[in-house]
Input
Amino acid sequence: MTALVLYACSHVGASQREGFVDELQSACDALATEIERHGCVANPGGPDYPTYASAMLLVAAEKLELRLDERQRQRLLDYLVESQIDQGEGYAPDAADFGGWDLEGGSDGPRKSTGTNISVGAMVSEALALRSNDQEKAALELYRVWLGKCQSLPGDGGFFFHAQRDHDGNKAGWAADADRDDLTRPLSYGSATSDGLRGLNACGEDPQSEQFRAGVRWFRTRSVFDRVPGFESSADNSWSEGLLYYYWYALAKSMEVMPRELQPTMAAQIRRELLGRQSAEGFWQNSSPRMREDDPLIATSFAIIALAILDESQWSD
Output
């Protein structure tokens, strides 16, 4: 939670952060206390979402120019690279999870992945893209290939959550015209497709590539902002509401790779939704507990990032 809030604060302007320098550094110091022991961001009792938290701290420390010594930064980078699912974890290059990241993080040898997913990969790739050393470049190249396993190509060009196509975490379900036991065609949806574009951008993919263009095309026919698109045929529509703040955040993070003609409308729609949902006390909160966005710290962090990115002067016509 501390890593997410600090990451959110790193997106707002310097004038808005003025007066909070000590608090931001204090948060960084708290997150760094277990790096020497665990090699990652961790609680005293052990890691908790270590891939997310370590990547968020790296990005926040860079953006906020916080005191995080070079040894600690390198430990975190090494941890993220070592956490990538590859031969070290006992996976062959043709395995679905090969090249991605899961929630579990690093290990000392072969292990069974909990399922590499596009959300944690988007966050880790953003952190690795801060450096241009060989190990980070190699990890991003593996991840670029992994992203292709989560994209509906041939198909609608959107992205789904897990490279394991039959994974229950592919939230929008599977193609309706498939046999009931055929779980090879997961349906793509808005937040995952946003994360797919974020990941491609972090990997340095050519915006004119078919992967990029297909992902952007997915949004051209799905200009929906009051819910997460892609769940229209799903039997469980609670995802469409439960992922809402994450969707706005992820879509804002992918805005720079959207075609210029789409940016003003998309930015204005997201701002309208967020400004209309802010509480009188200043925070945001999802009515759905599906993805813990009913916790104001989580929903507010996503809202702050989206609003900071979608500053009106940058994305207006």
Remarks:
- The chain has a mean pLDDT of 93.
